[in-house]
Specification:
Blueprint: H1 11-25, H2 41-56, E1 60-63, E2 69-73, E3 82-88, H3 101-116, E4 124-130, H4 143-149, H5 167-174, E5 191-199, H6 204-208, E6 212-218, E7 221-229, E8 233-234, H7 246-262, E9 269-271, E10 275-278, E11 284-285, E12 288-296, H8 300-320, E13 324-333, E14 336-337, H9 340-352, E15 359-362, H10 368-371, E16 377-382, H11 398-413, H12 418-422
Parallel strand pairs: 3-4, 3-5, 5-16, 6-15
Antiparallel strand pairs: 1-2, 2-4, 6-14, 6-16, 7-12, 7-13, 8-11, 9-12, 10-12
The structure holds glyoxylic acid and manganese (II) ion (2 copies).
Length: 423
């Protein structure tokens, strides 16, 4: 069998997953693209749909204190620790439909398959759909998985979205209690492991002609917001040498960030993905500009050095242009290695399905970065077309969805908790 071709016996599992991916993608804040962010009406509608799927897969399912969807398939006895599977169901702006939902929906379909066969395992299976991984609405990321890991910082409920709505207010509007987010927290004793299937979001598996891969580690990331303040003024009357143009200063900073990362050939990447200038009129010199900075590197030491260098350059630009500067770190995550004992079980499931075992790191962030605080983490990557992600052209072939589903199902059925796996 060619690596990547699906066996007919599981085509229905892949078909179910793709059908649900399409149904979920129809729930969007905007009509022209796919955007689904934390605590919106669309978050609520998506949660209700996913809870329906969980229940039809035989799971007890509920919405937790941060808006995650949680399903549980009991083991061969009640109250056993679980193997937790999951991924996120929020999206970036103008997103693809696979980033997050593929892992969540595949996990639900695998549990549905077990339930149809009346299969109970010596551990429970829980599937968690995390409500906010991307961090699009409130700048802090991984809010859903941090709440589950018990590391949600209460102070973030004070942050505001772009429309000035505080998270506290959005939580109340959604029907959640901002003072009881701690109720979503789980403990290490309740979990054997956290395993996530996700699209690769890069071109490596495609280049290897492989449908699936074993993830070795999730690269760390730092996100900052910079705000430069100068002096607004008349675009026709203020001579160039007397200006304190915040946007021109921001543009210089953005160029410096790109240059620092472009001239580093060891995998450092830096992105300014959002910029906002005020007051925002063609005939007014911009008095203030805010922009985000996202920096990632293969090692934490490398990323930290790069961030320090970028901060120094921004400070120098601000000083020379007589702009005042506020720089805030909004997100900082260390590199998270996948547990060797879980990598072994992922590899065994891949080779058990007849595919060559190939290991690769994840440049993208995932909920495992938060879950590591209460569980060992494993990940399976599924090939995507052209390595495209965070873009509406993101695509996974049905055969690869099938391959991923079969690998995950085999992984679940053969799963052995760490202590037993050692024996
Ligand atoms: C999540 O997709 C991230 O890597 O930013
Ligand atoms: Mn993403
Ligand atoms: Mn994702």
């Amino acid at each position: 069998m060619e690596a990547g071709s699906a066996g007919p016996e599981n085509a229905s599992l892949g078909g179910e997953v793709v059908g649900r991916i399409n149904q979920l993608a129809a729930i969007s804040e905007t009509s022209q693209d796919l955007t689904r962010t934390f605590l919106t009406r669309e978050h609520r509608a998506a949660a209700e749909l996913i809870l329906t799927w969980m229940r039809s897969a035989g799971m007890a399912a509920h919405l937790d204190a941060i808006g995650n969807v949680c399903g549980r398939h009991e083991g061969d006895r009640p109250n056993l620790p679980c193997l937790m599977l999951g991924s996120h169901y929020d999206t970036v702006r103008d997103a693809g439909k696979w980033d997050g939902p593929l892992g969540l929906i595949t996990a639900i379909s695998c549990v549905g398959d077990l339930a149809r066969r009346g299969r109970r395992l010596p551990f429970a299976i829980e599937v968690t759909g995390f409500a906010d991984e991307e961090g699009i609405r409130f700048a802090s990321t991984l809010l859903g998985s941090r709440a589950v890991a018990g590391t949600f910082e209460e102070s973030v409920v004070g942050t505001k979205d772009r429309a000035g709505i505080p998270m506290r207010e959005a939580l109340v509007e959604f029907g959640l209690d901002p003072d009881h987010i701690g109720a979503a927290a789980r403990t290490r004793r309740e979990l054997h492991a956290y395993i996530e299937l996700h699209i690769e979001q890069g071109p490596v598996l495609e280049a290897q002609n492989l449908p699936v891969g074993v993830v070795t580690a999730i690269a760390g990331a730092t996100r900052l917001v910079a705000r430069l303040t100068g002096m607004a003024g008349h675009a026709g009357t203020v001579p160039m040498r007397l200006r304190q143009d915040a946007l021109a200063g921001g543009a210089e900073c953005i160029g410096a960030i790109e240059e620092s990362c472009r001239t580093d050939d060891s995998g450092l990447v830096g992105t300014v993905g959002y910029i906002h200038a005020l007051p925002g009129a063609a005939n007014v010199i911009p008095g203030q500009v805010s922009f985000t900075i996202d920096v990632r590197a293969p090692t934490d030491a490398h990323r930290k050095r790069a961030v320090a260098d970028i901060v120094r350059q921004i400070e120098n630009i601000a000083k020379r242009r007589e702009l005042s500067l506020q720089l805030d770190v909004t997100h900082e995550n260390r590199t998270v290695p996948c547990a060797p004992w879980l990598k072994q079980q992922v590899a065994a499931a891949i080779s058990g399905e007849g595919f060559p075992v190939f290991e690769l790191p994840s440049g993208a962030g995932h909920d495992g970065m938060a879950m590591i605080d209460i569980a060992d983490v494993g990940m399976v990557f599924v090939r995507c077309r052209g390595g495209i992600s965070h873009h509406p052209d993101e695509h996974v072939e049905l055969a690869d969805v099938d391959a991923g589903a079969r690998v995950l199902l085999r992984l679940i059925e053969n799963f052995r908790p760490r202590d037993e796996a050692r024996r």
